[in-house]
Design goal:
0% strand, single chain, Four Helix Bundle (Hemerythrin (Met), subunit A), 84 residues
Length: 84
């Protein structure tokens, strides 16, 4: 994964937005929107699956819900950073 601050790589962008969610800079709806905008086409299969699972959880999450999502977000970050 690149360490460039303004990387165009999908995995870098996703990790940035997931990190912002973890630090409460963005909410569930904004995270879902950003993840969907970036998409998963450029990701490896395991990363694509992890992001897909997270999107599914974000779609059914209640507004402001974080406890259940935090595990999924952290696991997705780990998958994106270390691969599948």
């Amino acid at each position: 994964m690149s360490t460039a601050p303004n990387s165009d790589r999908a995995d870098d962008q996703l990790v940035t937005h997931l990190s912002h969610w973890l630090t409460r800079q963005i909410g569930n709806d904004e995270l879902l929107r950003k993840v969907q905008e970036i998409g998963t086409d450029e990701l490896a299969p395991g990363c694509r699956d992890a992001v897909g699972e997270l999107v599914a959880e974000l779609k059914v999450a209640a507004p402001g819900e974080r406890a259940q999502l935090e595990v999924a977000v952290r696991e997705t970050v780990e998958t994106l950073v270390y691969g599948d």
